[in-house]
Structures are given as C-alpha cells and as structure tokens.
Write a structure and sequence with these properties.
The chain is 39% helix and 0% strand. With 109 residues, the chain is mostly helical.
Length: 109
C-alpha cells in the first residue's frame, strides 16, 4: 500500500498535504519574496556527494518497501531531534549529551 495509499485510505481522519504542497495556502511560484533563491550559489554542490550516498544506502536497504521522508536542518537541530526524540524548547537532554564523555568520544565515519 505504501505511505500514499495509507494516507488516502484514511483520508477521512487525517488532514494535511498529500504529494506536494497546498498552493491554495502558499504558492512559492507566486511569492515575490523568494526571488533570492534563483541567485543561490550552487558552485559547491559537488561537496554534497555524501548526501546522495546516504540516500542510496537507505534505498538499497529498504528497496520499494518503504518511502523516504526528508529532513533538513543544521547539525545542532539534527542532533537535538536524535537526542530529545522530538522538538524541544529547552534542549536540556541535548546540552547534557553535548557535555558528556559519550559526545567527546563520538566519531563520525
């Protein structure tokens, strides 16, 4: 069934955006405030090859059995979601972790 099928099957109890954005609420194509996006510097996109490799690993592992939901955020944001398990206003657990020996011994591979 997949995520799309699940949402459609439960359309009477869920609400939100299916397969894209709700342009009746906000249409980025018509938003003049977004002109600066066209001027973004993309000369360093080659440095993001690790992102494609990570996605390839996820797809290879799950195949067509799962959908992929993306999340973008700065390193502290990602760390806080991983440590706190949800959004946080105080980041107490994230700060506690960042001061622990587990954090100082953490190695990224």
């Amino acid at each position: 069934m997949g995520f799309d099928g699940l949402l459609r099957a439960r359309a009477n109890v869920v609400s939100g955006i299916l397969n894209g954005i709700d342009t009746s609420i906000w249409n980025p194509a018509a938003d003049d405030r977004l002109e600066h996006i066209a001027r973004l510097d993309t000369t360093r996109t080659g440095e993001l090859g690790y992102v494609a490799k990570a996605i390839e690993k996820v797809v290879a592992h799950f195949g067509d059995s799962r959908g992929i939901i993306g999340f973008c955020g700065a390193p502290f944001t990602l760390a806080s979601y991983m440590v706190e398990g949800a959004s946080s206003r105080s980041f107490i657990e994230t700060m506690r972790f960042s001061l622990s020996s587990a954090f100082t011994n953490l190695r990224l591979s």
